[in-house]
Specification:
Helix content of chain B: 25-40%
Largest sheet of chain B: 8 strands, mixed
Number of strands of chain B: 17
Shape of chain B: globular
Distance between the termini of chain B: 34 Å
Largest sheet of chain A: 7 strands, mixed
Number of strands of chain A: 7
Number of domains of chain B: 2
Strand content of chain B: 25-35%
Shape of chain A: globular
Radius of gyration of chain B: 19 Å
Distance between the termini of chain A: 28 Å
CATH topology of the largest domain in chain B: Rossmann fold
Oligomer: heterodimer
CATH class of the largest domain in chain B: Alpha Beta
CATH architecture of the largest domain in chain A: Roll
Structural class of chain B: alpha+beta
Chain lengths: 369, 306
C-alpha cells in the first residue's frame, strides 16, 4: 500500500509528526474522518505522545483536546457500572472477566486513553450465567423486552444473553459465556481463557484476559464476528495492544501458538496483516511470515479479502460503488461465519420480514455499533 | 477580509462550489451552501466578522442546501449537514437560515468541550461580564437583546463559554432568535435595531433574528471576566422586578443543572464552576417588563469597582 495515497487520518495515525505538514484541506478531512470513526481523541493522544501537538494549528488542537471529555466521561460511567455489578454479584460465587474496553479502562492500559466505551462486556462461565443474570435482575437491572424468537436467538445460538441495563444508568451490560456465538465457525474454548486469565489488582473477583488472549479477542471481534466496516477504532486497539505488549518477553513467540490452540489463527492473520498495512504497526517480519504460512486462507480468498478490507476499513468519504459492494460482501461474510446456512437463511428471512414491518430488533444486529 | 466584503465580491457564485469560511466567536465555520437567501442573511447578520474564501482548518464543517429529488420542487426542504452527516430532519426550504443557526448551536453544544458551556445570555461592560443563565422560555434572549442596545456589549444570548484555564468568558455573538411574543416586544423596545424576516411556524413558533450591535461582532474575540450571575425569569404582568441575593452554594447548584456539559467535564467542570461562583455575585430576578429589569441590573452592577 502506498502511504502517500492513504487517507490523511491513516497517515496521521501512522506517522503523527507528519501532521506538521498537513494543509488545511488535509486537516479538515482528517478531523472529519476521525470523528466519524470515533478516534479523534485517540489521535490527539498519539500526536501528543509524538511531541507534535504544538505543531498543530490552534483550531485542530482545539478539537483534538475537546474530544477528550466524552471518552473520559464514558469510561468513568463504565468503571462505576463495574463496581455496581460487583456489588450485585455475591462474592463467593466465583470470578468474572472484564472484556475489551472495560478491561483496558479498569487496568489503566495506555490504549484506554481517548477510547469511547459504551457497553460493559463481561465473561462468566456458562454454568453460572443464569445465576448472574438472576442476581443482576434482582439488583435492579432490566432486560430489554424481547419476543420469543429473540430470546431463543440469544440463548440457543449466541455467546451472550440479552443485554441488561439499569434504568437509572445508561450503560448496557452484556454477559458473555464465550467469545463467539455457539453457532460460529470458529470455536475458541472458554476454559482456556479462564486458565490464563489474570486477576486485577485491587479488584477482588475481577480478572482480565492474558495479553495474548486480549489481542486475539479483539482481532476476532473485527475480522470474524464483525462486518469490518467502521472497524478502524478496533484496528486501532489491535495496533495499540501490539505496540504495548510487544515489549513483554515471549509475547511474539507465544502469539501464533496460542492462536492455533484457541482456533483463532485466521482472525489473528487478518488482524496483523491489516494493522501492519493500514496503521504501520511494528510487527517482526518473522511473525508475519509464520502467521501467514500457518493461518492465511487460500490465495484467491486472501487476495479478495485484502481488496475488500482495503476498501471497507479506511475512512469512507462519499460513496463509491466499489466501497459499497465491499461493505456488503463483508457484511454477508460476517453472517456466513456466524451461523451455518441452515440457521442463517431462515434467520435472514425473518429479519427481512421485520424490516418490512419497520421494526428494528436486537437479533438483527451483527454487532452493537 | 470581512464576510460583507467577501459576499459583495463580484464572483460570489464561486462560493457556492468551494464554500466559505467565517469566524463566530472562538469558532471557525466552513460553510457550503447554494442558497442565495441564506448567504444574504448571513451577510446582514454577520457582515463585520472575519471571513475567507480560501481553505482553512475549521471547527465545524457544515452545509445547508435544498433537499434533492422531488423535495427540490414539491414542498421544498432545506437540509443541514455536519461533517457530511445529517443530524436533523429537513426543514421547509424557506426556513434554511433558522435551521443553519440552530444546527450550528447544536454543533457547538455537543462538541466545544474545551469550555464549560452555560446555557446563558452574557453581556460585558468595562471588561466585567454579567451572566443570565436560564432555560429556554425564561426570557434570556429578550433580556440579552435589550441590554445589548443599552450600554452593554453582547457576548452571547445563548452560550456562556467559560474557559477552564483563565475562568474568563469568551464571546459568541450570534443572531438572536426572538420567538413569538418577544418579536413585537423588541420591535417596540428597540425600533432602530435590525430585525430579520419573521419565519412563521418553525418548531419553536414564529422566529425573527435580531442582529447583535456591530461593535459586539467586531470585538468577538475579546474575552471578559465574569462578575455577576442573575437567573432571570419572565413573569407576565409583574410590575416591579423582584431581586433576591442567592447563596453561592445555591448558585452553584443551579448552574450545574443549567450547563450543557457540566457532567461531561467531570472534575474539570467542577473546578471551573467553583471558581466561577466564587468570583461572582449571584441573584435571582423575576421581571415582567424590560425597562424595569434593565434599571435593576444597572443598580446591582453599579457599585462594583471598574
Amino acid at each position: 500500500m502506498n502511504p502517500a495515497k492513504l487517507h490523511t487520518l491513516l497517515r496521521s495515525a501512522r506517522e503523527p509528526s507528519a501532521v506538521a505538514h498537513f494543509s488545511a484541506d488535509d486537516w479538515n478531512r482528517c478531523l472529519r474522518a476521525a470523528r466519524t470513526e470515533r478516534v479523534l481523541a485517540r489521535l490527539g493522544y498519539r500526536i501528543e505522545d509524538a511531541g507534535a501537538l504544538d505543531h498543530c494549528p490552534a483550531v485542530a488542537r482545539d478539537q483534538l483536546l475537546a474530544a477528550r471529555a466524552y471518552p473520559a466521561f464514558l469510561q468513568c460511567r463504565v468503571a462505576h457500572e463495574v463496581s455496581q455489578v460487583r456489588r450485585a454479584l455475591p462474592a463467593g460465587d466465583g470470578d468474572l472477566i472484564l472484556l475489551k474496553g472495560a478491561a483496558y479502562c479498569c487496568t489503566g492500559l495506555p490504549l484506554t486513553r481517548g477510547r469511547q466505551l459504551r457497553d460493559l462486556d463481561i465473561l462468566v462461565p456458562r454454568t453460572r450465567i443464569d445465576a448472574c443474570e438472576r442476581d443482576l435482575l434482582a439488583g435492579g437491572w432490566e432486560a430489554q423486552t424481547l419476543d420469543d424468537y429473540d430470546q431463543r436467538y440469544y440463548r440457543d445460538w449466541m455467546h451472550e444473553i440479552p443485554p441488561l441495563r439499569h434504568p437509572q444508568r445508561d450503560v448496557e451490560v452484556d454477559l458473555h459465556h464465550r467469545l463467539l456465538p455457539l453457532t460460529s465457525r470458529l470455536r475458541p474454548n472458554p476454559d482456556l481463557l479462564w486458565e490464563s486469565s489474570i486477576p486485577v489488582a485491587g479488584m477482588p473477583g475481577v480478572r482480565i484476559l492474558s495479553p495474548v488472549d486480549m489481542l486475539l479477542h479483539t482481532a476476532t471481534h473485527v475480522f470474524h464476528d464483525g462486518a469490518v466496516r467502521g472497524g478502524l477504532n478496533d484496528l486501532w486497539d489491535i495496533d495499540e495492544l501490539l505496540r504495548h505488549f510487544s515489549a513483554q518477553p515471549a509475547f511474539w513467540e507465544t502469539l501464533p501458538e496460542r492462536a492455533a490452540r484457541l482456533d483463532l489463527g485466521r482472525p489473528l492473520y487478518y488482524g496483523l496483516l491489516f494493522a501492519h498495512a493500514l496503521l504501520n504497526t511494528p510487527i517482526p517480519e518473522a511473525v508475519l511470515t509464520e502467521v501467514g504460512r500457518r493461518f492465511a486462507p487460500a490465495r484467491p480468498v486472501s487476495t479478495l479479502m485484502r481488496a475488500l478490507v482495503s476498501l471497507a476499513l479506511p475512512p469512507q468519504e462519499g460513496r463509491s460503488a466499489f466501497a459499497g459492494l465491499a461493505n456488503w460482501l463483508l457484511y454477508v461474510r460476517s453472517h456466513w461465519l456466524r451461523m451455518p446456512p441452515h440457521l442463517l437463511l431462515p434467520h435472514l428471512f425473518r429479519k427481512s420480514l421485520r424490516r418490512i414491518d419497520g421494526v428494528d430488533h436486537p437479533s438483527g444486529r451483527v454487532d452493537k455499533r | 477580509m470581512t464576510l460583507s466584503e467577501l459576499l459583495q465580491a463580484p464572483d460570489r457564485r464561486g462560493l457556492a462550489d468551494n464554500g466559505l469560511v467565517y469566524r463566530s466567536g472562538p469558532f471557525i465555520i466552513a460553510l457550503r451552501t447554494r442558497l442565495a437567501d441564506t448567504l444574504d442573511l448571513l451577510e446582514q447578520f454577520y457582515g463585520p466578522c472575519w471571513a475567507s474564501r480560501g481553505p482553512a482548518v475549521a471547527h465545524f464543517q457544515v452545509e445547508i442546501n435544498s433537499a434533492s429529488g422531488i423535495r427540490r420542487w414539491w414542498r421544498a426542504q432545506a437540509v443541514f449537514a455536519l461533517d457530511a452527516l445529517h443530524p436533523f430532519e429537513p426543514f421547509p426550504r424557506e426556513h434554511a437560515f433558522p435551521l443553519l443557526e440552530w444546527g450550528l448551536n447544536w454543533s457547538i453544544a455537543t462538541r466545544a468541550h474545551r469550555y464549560l458551556m452555560l446555557h446563558a445570555g452574557a453581556l460585558e461592560r468595562n471588561g466585567q461580564a454579567l451572566l443570565l443563565p436560564a432555560m429556554p422560555g425564561a426570557g434570556k434572549s429578550t433580556l440579552s437583546a435589550a441590554l445589548a442596545y443599552r450600554g452593554w456589549r453582547l457576548l452571547s444570548d445563548e452560550f456562556g463559554l467559560i474557559r477552564p484555564t483563565g475562568g474568563d468568558i469568551l464571546p459568541l455573538p450570534r443572531a438572536i432568535p426572538l420567538k413569538n411574543r418577544s418579536i413585537p416586544v423588541i420591535r417596540e423596545f428597540l425600533p432602530d435595531a435590525f430585525l430579520g424576516p419573521v419565519f412563521p411556524k418553525t418548531r419553536k413558533g414564529d422566529v425573527a433574528h435580531l442582529r447583535p450591535p456591530l461593535p459586539s461582532l467586531a470585538r468577538q474575540t475579546e474575552p471578559a471576566q465574569p462578575r455577576w450571575i442573575a437567573f432571570p425569569r419572565f413573569v407576565p404582568g409583574l410590575r416591579r422586578p423582584q431581586l433576591k441575593r442567592l447563596d453561592k452554594s445555591l448558585g452553584f447548584a443551579r448552574l450545574a443543572q443549567n450547563a450543557f456539559n457540566y457532567r461531561l467535564l467531570g472534575e474539570g467542570g467542577f473546578m471551573t464552576l467553583v471558581r466561577l461562583v466564587r468570583e461572582c455575585t449571584c441573584f435571582s430576578m423575576d421581571y415582567g417588563n424590560l425597562a424595569a429589569a434593565i434599571a435593576l441590573i444597572e443598580e446591582i452592577t453599579a457599585d462594583e469597582p471598574c
